[in-house]
Amino acid sequence: MKLIIQIPCLNERETLPETIAALPRHIPGIDEIEVLIIDDGSTDGTAERAAELGVHHVLRFPQNRGLARAFTAGIDACVKLGADIIVNTDADNQYEGTDIALLVAPILAGRAEFVIGDRQTDGIAHFSPIKKLLQRWGSGVVRQLSATSVSDSPSGFRAISRRAALGLFVHNRFTYTLETVIQAGRAGIAVENVKVRTNHKTRESRLFKNIPDYLKKAGGVMFRAYAMYRPVQVFSRIAFVLFAIGALTWGRFLYYFVTRGTAAGKIQSLLVGTTAIILAFVVGLVAMLAELLAANRRLLEDLLVRMRNMESRVGDASSRQLHAVHTTGHASWTADDVRVGGPTKEALPAPSPPS
Ligand SMILES: Nc1nc2c(ncn2[C@@H]2O[C@H](COP(=O)(O)OP(=O)(O)O)[C@@H](O)[C@H]2O)c(=O)[nH]1
Ligand SMILES: [Mg+2]
C-alpha cells in the first residue's frame, strides 16, 4: 500500500521545512510513503528547497496556474506514480501532519474513498465570528448540493483512494475543495469526515483576500458545480418559477376579462404572462439539452477514467515526462527505514535561511 502526500505550493520556501518535518514517516497499514510537491511557478526557490528537504517528487509549473489546476495535476501525477492513497495537505503547516494517519484510516478500513479532515472551525481562535458563521453556512449548502454529510467542505486536508482519484475532475480555476465534494457525493463515492487538529497560523491566506472575495468565488463555483452535476434540477426549477409567474399574470388578466368584460388596462399582465410562459418553455428545453450534455460528459469522464488507469499502468517514464514530474531520487519512507533509523525527522537536513 503506497501513500503519496501531495503539497501544492506557491512560494512556500519558508514554511515548507516545518511542514515536511511534521509528516509521518510510517503509518500502520501503509508500506511506502512518498511526498510530491506541486510548485506552481514559485519564485522563491520552493522546488529546490523541497528537493533538499528529501521530498520524492517535484511537479513544477513554469508559471502560476492556480491551486485548482495544481491539485488536479498532482492527483494525476500521484496516480501515475502508483499511489493507492493520496493525501493533500497545505504547505503552511496548517494541518497537524501526524493526523494523516487518522485521515487514511477509513480508506484502509474500506469504509470510505474520500476522507475530509474536519478542522472544527468553531474552535479555531484566529477565525473571526463571521468567518466561522460563513464556514458553517457554506458547509451546510455543500452538504445539500452534494448529498453528503461533509462537515468542513473548504478543508484542504484530505485523503483520496486511487479509485476515487481516477474519477475526480475539477472544472473551475479557483478552488478544488467544494467542487470535488459535490462531484464525489453525486458520483456515489463514500465520503467520511475525520476530526483533525490545526496548527498556529503562519501567514495570511494566499487564496482569498477577504470574506466578500471568498463568497464571490466560492458561490460561483458551487452554483456551477451543482448546475453541471444536476442540470435538470437547476433548469427545471427556473422553468417552474417562470411558468408560475406566467400563469399568475395570465390568471389576473383572465379574471378581470371575465368579471369586468374588458381587458382595458390589463394588457401588461398579458404581455408579462406570455413572455414568462415562453421563457419557461425555452428554459425547459435548455434543461433537456443540459441533460443530454451531461450524459455526454459522463461518457467522456468514463473514458478519461479508463485512460488515466491505463496510462498509469503503461511504462511511467513517458507519462512522467508529459507532466514534468521530477523524481529526486530520495528513497521512499518505509517501515524498515524507521526500524533501522533511516530518514526520520531528525535525519532530515535542518532548514536553512532563505537566500
Ligand atoms: N499550486 C498552487 N498552490 C497554491 C496557490 N495559492 C496557494 N497555494 C497553496 O495552497 C495551499 C493553501 O493555501 P493557503 O494560503 O494556506 O490557503 P488557506 O489554507 O485557505 O488559508 C498552500 O499550500 C499554498 O501554498 C496557487 O496559486 N497555486
Ligand atoms: Mg493553509
What does this structure look like?
The protein has 355 residues and is α/β, with parallel strands linked by helices. It folds into 2 domains: 2-228 and 303-339, Spore Coat Polysaccharide Biosynthesis Protein SpsA, Chain A, CATH 3.90.550; 231-295. It is 50% helix and 13% strand. Strands 1, 2, 3, 4, 5, 6, 7, 8 and 9 form a 9-stranded mixed sheet that branches. The longest helix is centred in the C-terminal third of the chain and has 47 residues, at 267-313. The two termini are 38 Å apart. The model is unreliable at 339-355 (pLDDT under 50). Bound molecules: guanosine-5'-diphosphate and magnesium ion. Guanosine-5'-diphosphate binds at residues 8-10, 12, 38, 40, 64, 66-67, 70, 90-92, 94, 156, 205-207. The site of guanosine-5'-diphosphate has 18 residues, from strand 1, strand 2 and helix 3.
Characteristic key phrases:
355 residues, alpha/beta, Spore Coat Polysaccharide Biosynthesis Protein SpsA, Chain A, 2 domains, nine-stranded mixed beta sheet, 12 helices, 9 strands, disordered C terminus, binds guanosine-5'-diphosphate, binds magnesium ion
Summarize the structure.
By secondary structure, this protein is α/β, with parallel strands linked by helices. The chain has helices spanning 16-21, 46-52, 67-80, 100-108, 129-146, 162-166, 177-186, 211-229, 231-260, 267-313, 316-322, 335-339; strands at 2-9, 32-40, 57-61, 85-88, 114-118, 158-161, 191-195, 325-327, 333-334.
